[in-house]
Structures are given as structure tokens and as C-alpha cells.
Amino acid sequence: MTGHPDIGIPADTAVPAPAPLLSVRGLGRRYGTRIGCTDVGFDLWPGEVMGIVGESGSGKSTLLNCLAGHLVPDAGEVIFDTRDRGPVDVLRLSEPERRMLGRTDWAFVHQNPRDGLRMGVSAGGNVGERLMAVGARHYGRIRETASDWLGRVEIAADRIDDRPRAFSGGMQQRLQIARNLVTGPRLVFMDEPTGGLDVSVQARLLDLLRGLVREMGLSALVVTHDLAVVRLLADRLMVMKDGRVVEAGLTDQVLDDPQHGYTQLLVSSVLQV
Amino acid sequence: MYVAVKGGERAIDNAHRWLAEERRGDAEVPELGVAQIREQMSLAVNRVMAEGSLYDPDLAALAIKQARGDLIEAIFLVRAYRTTLPRIGASEPVDTGAMACDRRISATFKDAPGGQVLGPTFDYTHRLLDFALAAEDVPPPEPAATAQASGTPMPRITATLGRDGLIQQEPASDETPTDMTRTPMEFPADRALRLQALARGDEGFVLGMAYSTQRGYGRNHPFVGELRIGTVAVEMELPELGFAVEIGEIVVTECETVNQFAGSRTEPAQFTRGYGLSFGQTERKAISMALVDRALRWQELGEEDTGAPAQDAEFVLAHADNIQATGFLEHIKLPHYVDFQSELELVRRLRREAEAAAGPARQEAAE
Amino acid sequence: MRDLQDDDARSGAGYNFAYLDEQTKRMIRRALLKAVAIPGYQVPFASREMPMPYGWGTGGVQVTAACLTPDDTLKVIDQGADDTTNAVSIRRFFARMAGVATTERTTEATVIQTRHRVPETPLRDGQILVYQVPIPEPLRFLEPRETETRRMHALEEYGLMHVKLYEDIARHGHIATSYAYPVKVEGRYVMDPSPIPKFDNPKLETAALQLFGAGREQRIYAIPPHTRVVSLDFEDHPFEATKADAACALCGATDSYLDEVVTDDTGGRMFVCSDTDYCATRREASETGDSA
């Protein structure tokens, strides 16, 4: 299941799209005189997962926030292939249009689940919010959908009325994922999704994410400093340094045969650990 | 049999009569005159003028008498009166640099042109009850030497720092600031609006906010660059004349703080400022105001939002006014029968349903 | 030198008609016109400091003052009753400051200022109902920031409002809001109808003009006559206008909102109409209840 006919969002079609889902050109953002990111361009195809790696300060989070509309870039365009209007530059959308996109076709998974959840609202309410925001008005069906999604992210059904405060870090992160995916988005932005989690918890979350991405045919952009995460999730990879993309390619290719000196350093530093 | 409660009118009349009686107190004790309050309760009068936003010592004294010494109630009376006054025009900005100072101190420089003048301050009094004052008919004290007799000019301390570029410059502006009593408050509020709100804000609230910055909630390392209290001329340009004429004098307290310096590799370090100004001798208020003003400038100065209450303009400005606060707080005394009734019915219903649900379960458990 | 003994203030003779100066009234009327043009939208206005405390009806009083003409007949109620102390106080204020006729009859009034109730007697074309509003922002307790709530209204982002209702049902089995129950006006703005019991919500669709004044919060909003007003709910948990399941002990009415009156300290209680005019009118028409 990838859509919710009861709330008016059509299920994803399996027809291969002729155009990229997201097409970025010349994107740049400065902080005063300092470069946040500059001249970034890439295409993301439907069903594709792209990893963005680099150390902190490399510009990968700036890039993600510019793409997701949390930061206003100084230059470039971000073309998204919308369902109803075809490709549009999201940077030129009005605020209401961008917000609508943000709660339907797009999703954003924060590193810290507290930034992406309402901590004072029950798990069911957290998952149901996006449904209600796009017009769902049947309590029973909202609850059913929420319950279904809690199951898909491996949260026990009897926790539906508990608040996320009572959840472990891993559960909170899974709840955040459910809350984001419930409206069947087509593009998911993830910012260090396994960030502050224990290694054992990370593995389970990655496994879950990989399953959902494949099953729903999601396109995703995953920012991380953890090469294991991209190895497992990403089809393709961009390596960033000092706000620029220094290398890009198929994940296995880049990781197994890094061309750029910085990528080599990055890969070898992981192997040493 | 139940009879609907009637007699609201009579009850109100009786309450007002009783209030008048209590206000007068024991008729054996001579009645307090408005002039006595104005002259001998002058700091209370000053506070009422400052937070009432109306410079009129006689009215403030009257309000204090009418309010039985409840200063917030007195401020309320003055504010309600002030609203009805016609607005003839706006004065020129007062020149506090040309103030005839009764008091002028700096914590940043030991001496400065014009010197330090303590003036009529409690600062170095030992807080010992003076039982001599309990006796009536104490002869008036000898007149003290006043500072301004010499007529020494007292340039602003911050101007000294400004000349060397050591403190941020406040650019002059001819823009007419928004009048918060004539325009609804909208956020984000600019500095002129924030200063207005602080100037008429509750002394206790602004003090508490300022104190919180000193204790680390939005710390900004303040020094009292200069505190001055004295008389300034109020001038107004009359369209018929085409130039400004003096229409009166007022006493004000001004505080300029020198704060935490800012700077970076590209911009040389500079001290920053906070500003406080209020009617009358109200220095606790003026200093507090300067600290809170400074805390609220974090954005403009490129500082971090530490989440401190005093950095949150919407929080500070929305809660600083004691007339708004006391009205809304006390309105919960008004009848809320209807709301309460609707809650009562809901709670009863929820309890009924909970019991009904628990009933069969209890039975099952017993079986 | 001002004569401090001047007694004008007591008689109201020294003040403009209905207390406020004409400039201020014009400012309020402009806000009212805008409010009527955009039903349910909260219009900021430069609320004045009134000679009564904030939270005690200063918004309603300013709106009433801006609407009154010398020919008007004013009714003031608080909790449905004309005789509660604050209603008396506000009625006296206008009797003194505007010299208008006052009444306790809903049908005779041209302007009705109310706190917490909508009169039971259906209002007619040409009447104005002025509400006193403590907190005009329906989203306030979900989001304390004015900058954020204004954005939510502008972008019509009302999902959070339903999250609150969802949480109520999840926890209590019912929507647990019993007064100040949020409504959507003409399919656009979510609005707080002021703390009226939800029993009164259906009466928000009326032939009369409804004006809402929040003095301390500096907001005015309106529901023009015959505007669609929908109480927020879920399809499977529809809105219900509830009241105590009893009849008025004085007039026998079963269709009016009831106050519960404690009659002794052993649990004795009775229910009477909250709308005193409605109750009295029925009794005059010699409909009697159990207790009479």
C-alpha cells in the first residue's frame, strides 16, 4: 500500500516516469562570506535513494535543508515533478504550496525525533496528524491507519495512546518514520536518521527503512556521516567537502573504488575503525 | 423553593459605600491630602506616572489616594483617564544630554566631565527604621547642596566611548515611532515599540526579567555606563510658529548600560548598549529596562537565542503590562457558572461511562 | 490648574456619547467592517484602556460603544442573566455614558452585549449580539506564539486542531471540549466562539449580526448574518450540543441551557434556565415547572 484513497491521495502508479523526480541545478547558499554549499547539481529518479556523505561542516545538512525548504538558497533551482502540475521549481512556489507539498508528497525525518514528533501528543495522534492536515475527518479510519502504521514500524498496537516521551530512542525514531510515511509521500529527506542511536538499534532501524523504501518505491535523500548507512540504503552517493560535491556515483563503486583523495580518506578512516 | 439570585445592583452600591468608608479609615485620624501624597510619597507618585504613562504628579497622587495606596489600581485609574485625553500632537524628542541632573553616576569610569553626583539616593543609607520619623511635626531638614548649582555640563559617558568607536553607534532616525497606545501590538516588534512597552511595563516584572539575565538566563554582562536623573525641557513645534517652543519640564530617569562586546575577525570588537528611560525618579525601573532591552536585541546583534525568557520579545512584551495582567488574572473572580456547568456535565458523563465499562469487567473478574 | 474636584466624570456629562471619542469609534468601526468582510478572521485593533479591568469585557464594551446610537435599546447579560454583577455594572456604564434605553427583554433589544451565552430566544434581522472574548485565538493553547498562530490561519493549517480533538477521543471517548468549542466560519477561518457552552454553538448561525471583541488581546472578529458556522468534529464522533438532562424547575423548559443550583448541603440540587429573560417570559405566559 502506498496511497490512501480515503483521503484523496492517489496511490503511486507503477508506470516508470520519463523525468527525474527531483532535479537540482546550481544550488548554493552562503552564510555571510562563508560557503554553506555551492554549485550543487544532481538528478534523483523515482524509487532511487541517494546518500550524501561528508564530515560535519561539509555542507551536507545545509544542502538538505535548502532542498527541503527549511533554508532559502541564494542560487539555483530545485525542480520537483509534482503529481498534478508536472515539474515545478519548488523555490518559486508560494508558501502555502510549499507547505502543502511538505505534508503530502514530501517527508522529512529529523536526526532527533524530538524535532519531528509532538512529544505531548499520543503515538496515534502523531501518526494521524498528517492525515488530518490533508482533510481526514473519520476518527475510526484515522486510528485504523495509525494502528496499521505503528505495526509496520514494529510498535506494539497497545502503545497507540502512549506519548512518545515514554518510548525508547529507537521507538521514537520509528514513530517519526511512521508519522512521515503515512500520507504516502514520494520523496523523503532524512537527516542522520540513525544519529543518536545505539549500534544494535541502528541496525534494526536501517533494516526497517530499507524494507519500507523498497516496498513503497520511495525516493530518498539521506544525509549521513556514517558510510555503513549509505552502503545499506543508498543506490547512489554524493561526497561533499567544503560545500562542494567532490565525487558522485553508484554507492558500491564509490565506496569500493574511491577516486577523489578526500573520499579515499573517508573510506579508509572507516576501515581503520 | 428556589428564588433566582437578584439584587446585583444593590450589592454593587453597598460595596462602593463600604469601599469609600474603608478608604477614609478611622475618621479620628486626619485625612491625607493629595498634596501630601505628591510631596511625601513622591516615589509612589513617580511609579504611577511612569507605568500610567502620564506625567501629572497631582493626578497620580489623587489616584493613589483613591486607590487606597494600591499602586497598580492607581496606575489603572491614570491609564483609564489618559485614554480619554485628546492627542494634540507630539513633542520633540527630549534631550537628556542637556538634563539638569540631580543624580548622575557611572559605574564604568571613576571620574568623567561633570563628575559623579549621588543626589537623593537610598543607596548608602543603612536600612534602619528611623523612629524619629514616627514623631509628628519633625522640622523640615536643612536644604542640601544641589549638584547643578555649578551648571557644569554633563556629557554622556557613552559619548566618550562612542568617540573612540568602542561602543556600537545607535543610528539616528527621523522615523515616527509607532504609538503602542494607538496601534495594536504586532510581532515582531521593533526596538522603539519594545522600549515603549518596557517603559510602561510593571516594575516588578521588568525587574524580575532583568534579574534573570544577571543570573544567566540570557546573560549580557551589563555595566551601568551612566544613570542620570533630572529635569529636561519638553519642546513642541507649533505649526503656527514654525519652530519649537518649550512647553514644560519633566523629571526623568535615564540609564545607559554598556554591555557584552561583540565583534569578529572582520569587525573590530565593540561594546553594546541597553537603554532605559522612565518618568520621575524611577531608577530601579530604568536599570531593569536597560538590561531587558539589551537582552531583547540578541537577533540584531547576531547573538544566539539561548531560549531565555528575557530574550523572547513576544513573551516579555505580552506579559509586562500590569493592567492587562491584573485584569485578566482577576477576571477569574467573575461568574463562570455556564462554563463550569458544561464541564460538570462532561465529567459526569465520562465518569458514568467509565463506571459502566468497569461494571461488566468487575463482574467478569468476580466470576 | 485642573479642578480635581470636578464631578463631571460621575455623571458622564464630561464624556463623549458612549464614552469613547469619535476618532476611536471610527477606528473600531473600520476594524468591524473588515471583520464582517472576512468572517471569522481576527482583526487587530488598537484597543483602548477602558475604565474597567481587562478581562471584564473591555473588548465587548468598546465594540458596543462603537455600535450604539442614541435610539438603541441595550441589553447586557453575563452567564445568561441580566442581574449578575458584571452585567449590571456594564449596563449602568452605558446608561450613564450613552443615556440609551436598557432592557432585559431579548426581543426588545437592538444591541445585546453578552458574556458566555447566546440568548435562547432566536435573534432577528437587525439585532447585534456583542460577545466579550477573553482569548480570541482558538489555537492559543496548542501554540502559544502569536506569530505562529497567525501564520497557521493564513495558510489554513488547522491539522493541529483536529489532533487535539483526536487526543480527546483517544483518552476520554469523547471530544472533551464543552465550552469555547471551536468552529469553522464560512469554510475558511477556525474561530473561538468565546466561552459559550457548546450547547449554544448551533445558535451561531443566525439572522443577527454577531461581533466579538477582545480588549486585552486587541482583536475584533465577526460572523455576519446567515453565515455558515460549523463546529469541528469527526464524521464518526459528530458534534453534539449538550445540556443537563433535566427541565427547568421554574418554567419547565426542556430546550434551554440549565444552571445547576445547589439547594442544601446534602446533595440537593435543581436546574433552572441560565437565560433569565427566557425563563421569566415563559413563566409570565404561565407555563409552570415543578417547583413553582
Automatic annotation (TrEMBL), chain A:
Positions of the ABC transporter domain: 22-267
Pfam families hit by this protein: ABC_tran (PF00005)
InterPro entries referenced in this protein's UniProt entry, alphabetically: AAA+_ATPase (IPR003593), ABC_transporter-like_ATP-bd (IPR003439), ABC_transporter-like_CS (IPR017871), P-loop_NTPase (IPR027417), PhnK (IPR012700)
GO molecular function (one): lyase activity
SMART domains: AAA
The UniProt record lists the keyword Lyase: yes
UniProt keyword list: ATP-binding, Lyase, Nucleotide-binding
GO biological process: one example: organic phosphonate catabolic process
Keyword ATP-binding: yes
Coiled coil: none
PANTHER family in alphabetical order: PHOSPHONATES UTILIZATION ATP-BINDING PROTEIN PHNK-RELATED (PTHR42764)
Name of the protein in question: Phosphonate C-P lyase
Species this chain originates from: Roseivivax isoporae LMG 25204
Upper taxonomic lineage: Bacteria, Pseudomonadati, Pseudomonadota, Alphaproteobacteria, Rhodobacterales
Name of the gene encoding the protein in the UniProt record: phnK
Automatic annotation (TrEMBL), chain B:
InterPro entries: PhnI
Keywords assigned: Lyase
GO biological process: organic phosphonate metabolic process
A GO molecular-function descriptor: lyase activity
Protein name: Carbon-phosphorus lyase complex subunit PhnI
Gene source species: Roseivivax isoporae LMG 25204
Source species taxonomy: Bacteria, Pseudomonadati, Pseudomonadota, Alphaproteobacteria, Rhodobacterales
UniProtKB/TrEMBL annotation, chain C:
EC number of this enzyme: 4.7.1.1
Broad EC category: lyase
Keywords of this entry: 4Fe-4S, Iron, Iron-sulfur, Lyase, Metal-binding, S-adenosyl-L-methionine
GO process terms (BP): organic phosphonate catabolic process
Catalysed reactions, semicolon-separated: alpha-D-ribose 1-methylphosphonate 5-phosphate + AH2 + S-adenosyl-L-methionine = alpha-D-ribose 1,2-cyclic phosphate 5-phosphate + methane + 5'-deoxyadenosine + L-methionine + A + H(+)
Coiled coil location: none
GO molecular function, one term: alpha-D-ribose 1-methylphosphonate 5-phosphate C-P-lyase activity
UniProt keyword Ribosomal protein, yes or no: no
Keyword Transferase: no
Purpose: Catalyzes the breakage of the C-P bond in alpha-D-ribose 1-methylphosphonate 5-phosphate (PRPn) forming alpha-D-ribose.
Membership in a protein family: Belongs to the PhnJ family.
Record's protein name: Alpha-D-ribose 1-methylphosphonate 5-phosphate C-P lyase
Organism name: Roseivivax isoporae LMG 25204
